[in-house]
Amino acid sequence: MNSSVRSGRDASALLRLVSSHFSSESFNSSSFFLSYMALSFGGDIEIILSTFHFWYTHFLKVIFMPRFEIDVDPCDHLTADAIGKPGQRVFYLQAYQEQRTITVIIEKAQLNSLAIGIEQFLAQINEQNPNLTEASGDYVEDVMRINPPVDPLFRVGEIGLGYDKDRDLVVLFVKEILTEEDDPETGAVIRFWATRTQVRMLARWGVEVVSRGRPICPQCGQPMEPEGHFCPKKNGHLH
Asked: Which of 96, 92, 75, 74 is nearest to 84 (CA)?
């Protein structure tokens, strides 16, 4: 390997060389910085690698870390709810732990899918652990209602489920939705650790919350507005 690069004119060659020492993700985001170092240090590759390694370790690596990670472990309470009129509702997922309230925004379809996924996931857990008692899904509506402060930390993009057999706890993890310009590794993450009963209550209540929206037109399958519905199956006639 050449130990030096003569000038800034060879910056592209230097960048290709340095890229082999670091992940492509961090390298691509740092090409400008490397070009600057190539000019500043006259192309001395050893100095450049050493300097870049220090910079990457102390500064760049932070860029690719999540904005924040929160573990609500364990949840004292876990619920979901919607606020607003049918057709304009905003859906939330919320957990309490002692004096802390954690709230995020989810989509109606996400809540519906989560409810279905929880039931399937719990069925798998019971199948693999036949000695476990069945989790109850009975809930009290007033208890499951979302409580203030409704101050969401972010809008959810990804949802997943896991199970800690030793603790008999389900972990519901959500990740922040990002724009196309954002690095996917920087999305904030929250993990809600809850009992099987808590997540089953969430699932059963979630189905109820979703069903309280606009009624579905039996003809076209689209939501019907309170003031009337222009159904394409009826040639757009209001009914």
From this structure: 92
